[in-house]
Design brief:
single chain, 311 residues, alpha+beta, 10 helices, 11 strands, 25% strand
Length: 311
């Protein structure tokens, strides 16, 4: 049975975690909320609230609405007229998966209004196809920390995905430092090399394996070593003013290590619970000394993913 009103809450995500480029991500306790209501007249109404509301499009090009339409296209039904209320809690273009929240929110909202014709796995595959890679949309939908691997088979035109949940010890705290400037994913991808050496590929393979063990055990030495990367961070650091200063401050305050969250410019430090406040303060102060304002938060791993509530 379909709903007339539905609210979808979707968590922010941090992707890559250093060596896990384009394949690993974790959901964070920071959220966007999307309310969908069927309209009796008209076609589309979008209202947006939140700090960056003015930056969000309110016409048919809105990404949330595009995802909404995509699901109805997939199930070969005409989309209903809909009023959408967007409550922003995830900063835009900061490397915290704001676009993934829109894609997941639009697909889940449409699926609910249509009477849930698609399974969660089918919604996930649509989300990956829209986003182009799984590292943000998968944890945004499912919650937790997730590793996604494509599986290629003979006589199959497109790969399918194996999704693995990654244990994350509660005493490993993600601290995000969100600067007051944006960095587009396309710009962050343009600086990446098209090929990497065998040595660098082996380096990242080893460090990703170490990261998984570090997160599962809470071993800070393993985590700190594992966060090193040679595929994307060395090239993207130059796009983020003050990167080295913030990293040095975080490490001096007791962080296991620091990485770029997603494509940036948000920086993510992992630390133990007792040192989270000191790490957050140190990162904020370091950026302020570079003349950059930043919002710094100690968060946790969201374990629910996208949730729905009838209104």
């Amino acid at each position: 049975m379909s709903e007339s009103h539905i609210t979808v809450t979707v968590p922010a995500t941090t992707a890559n975690l250093g060596p896990g480029f384009d394949c690993i991500g974790a959901a964070l306790t920071l959220y966007n909320r999307f309310k969908f209501s069927r309209l009796e007249v008209g076609k589309l109404s979008i209202t947006v609230t939140g700090t960056e509301a003015a930056k969000v499009k309110t016409d048919e090009s809105n990404l949330l609405y595009q995802a909404f339409l995509r699901l109805y296209q997939h199930i070969k039904q005409s989309p209903p007229a809909v009023a959408i209320e967007i409550e922003l809690g995830v900063p835009l273009a900061r490397g915290l998966g704001s676009s993934a929240t829109a894609i997941v929110g639009g697909l889940v909202g449409a699926n609910q209004l249509a009477g849930t014709p698609l399974s969660q796995a089918e919604v996930m595959n649509l989300a990956i196809a829209m986003e182009g890679h799984p590292d943000n949309v998968v944890p945004a939908l499912l919650g937790g920390c997730r590793l996604a691997a494509s599986v290629e088979m003979l006589h199959v035109t497109s790969p399918y995905w194996q999704i693995c949940d990654i244990p994350w010890q509660e005493n490993v705290v993600p601290v995000v430092a969100i600067p007051d400037f944006e960095l587009s994913t396309s710009e962050a991808r343009r600086v990446l090399p098209t090929q990497v050496s065998r040595v660098d590929a082996i380096f990242n393979t080893a460090h990703l394996g170490l990261l998984l063990r570090g997160l599962a055990t809470g071993n800070g030495e393993w985590i700190g070593a594992a966060l090193q990367d040679r595929l994307h961070q060395p090239y993207r650091q130059r796009l983020i003013s003050g990167y080295e200063a913030v990293q040095n401050a975080a490490l001096a305050a007791g962080a296991y290590g620091m990485v770029i969250s997603g494509a940036g410019p948000t920086l993510l430090a992992l630390t133990e619970t007792a040192k989270a406040a000191a790490v957050a303060t140190a990162m904020q102060t370091a950026w302020q000394q570079q003349g950059i304002d930043a919002e710094v938060r100690s968060l946790a791993i969201d374990t629910q993913g996208a949730t729905t509530n009838p209104v």
